[in-house]
TrEMBL record:
The protein's name: Aspartate--tRNA ligase
Organism whose genome encodes this protein: Candidatus Komeilibacteria bacterium CG_4_10_14_0_8_um_filter_37_78
Its biological purpose: Catalyzes the attachment of L-aspartate to tRNA(Asp) in a two-step reaction: L-aspartate is first activated by ATP to form Asp-AMP and then transferred to the acceptor end of tRNA(Asp).
GO BP annotations listed: aspartyl-tRNA aminoacylation
Aspartate as annotated region, ranges: 199-202
Record's subunit section: Homodimer.
Xref: InterPro entries: Aa-tRNA-synt_II, aa-tRNA-synth_II, aa-tRNA-synth_II/BPL/LPL, Asp-tRNA-ligase_1, Asp-tRNA-ligase_1_N, Asp/Asn-tRNA-synth_IIb, AspRS_core, GAD-like_sf
The keyword Cytoplasm belongs to this UniProt entry's keyword annotation: yes
Binding site for ATP: R221, D222, E223, E369, G420, I421, E422, R423
Chief place of localization: cytoplasm
Amino acid sequence: MKRIKTTETVNQEGKEVLISGWVNARRNMGKIAFLDVRDRFSMIQVVGVPDELDANSNENLAKIRPEFVVAIKGMVNKRGEKQINKDLPTGTIEILAKEIIILNESETPPFEIVNEDRQANEELRLKYRYLDLRHERMKNNMIMRSKVLHFLRDYLQQQDFVDIQTPILSKSTPEGARDYLVPSRLHQGKFFALPQAPQQYKQLLMIAGLERYFQIAPCFRDEDARADRSPGEFYQLDMEMSFVTQEDILILVEEMFTKLVKELYPDKKITETPWPRIDHQEAMEKYGSDKPDLRKDKNDPNELAFAWILNFPLFVEQTEEDHFYGAGDKWAPSHNMFTAPHEEDLELLDKDPGKVRSYQHDLALNGFELGGGAIRIHDMKIQEKVWDLIGFDAKQKEQFQHYFEAFKYGVPPHGGIAPGIERLMMILQGEKNLKEVTAFPLTSDGRDPLMDSPAEVSKEQLKELGLDIVSEIK
Ligand code: ASP
């Protein structure tokens, strides 16, 4: 007999079926036992009556505890009017067990799977993430994330975008954060860097003539965690287009997310369409933020207030954190160093750089920065000027030799954006933390309690890489 999903038992009254899954709960009523059996799709009530079962099944039934993995052969029966459970798709029926097989036993989990309070201890939840993900809400977050990514991939393919995987073993990318470094064994003393974003690669793909690129791109930034920032790694819907204006990018993104909400989150309402467009200066003056929360009712879980923030200054004053740029220099890029200035402000680059406006566009959603992007510089003379202003010395410019070289061979005007997947999913799923929409996230202090990483490596491994640990390990 072929195993069917719990949801497929509906309308099968009077038929014999085989289901399998985990025991969610067990209730004893005299000699009869009720088992709630859970699979990915739903849950169904199984009734174990000793007289209906062979000796082996009776033995198994006596043993079964929550989280055992079981297979049940039995008859689908209608539930009595009073026993109907309206919360379950299988709530009108139950299975009268004829055969009970234990596929695997389980110890008592360190927290109750169905109990929301298990959230209290993040360390434990992450150490036993595979149990945490058994919870209905977490499972649903994973399934919706999959559906959203599928929608985005499908939508962009239909719009002529090409899905291209750029390298993970890469070179330091100047997105303004600290890099994760990977030592090279074959070239000792040299390091790969994990990409903070595929920024340079996607621009090189425009030079390559691909015209429309996207990728659900893993990004790695060695930064401290915040509620709206994942420690370590996260994903972006990374996009780049040639021969476009800023307007084209804004429209494409607006239409894509509007359709996504309509198809996958029909209960949600977008506060204002077309999405409001606010000048950076106005946003700062009016809301004191460049990611204002424009919801009319902040308690409405179904409200989505998208807004474009435009006309950012090209530069911001450097802070100590801007270690990447020239030390002691005044300017750091507001978005990144490839962002194009407004044509009419070009003269100000020499006279008053702080006044230059840029083609940066940030997308705000419910008070979060969903993503940013820009029209890029495609003229090396302007790029060099920007590098000078952010204090690049000859050595730093040397690091962009490949970029400099590529710019000699016909760079099309281009631009793009990269909305964050975890931020999007956190807001759509009504979660308060990015970890809730990430299958195996790191702790806020950058550890994985499940795999126990980062971890020490053997002396031999270090030797192969030509490395030595010089500071004392605490
Ligand atoms: N690479 C940028 C970022 O990670 C996004 C973009 O400009 O497309 O923020």
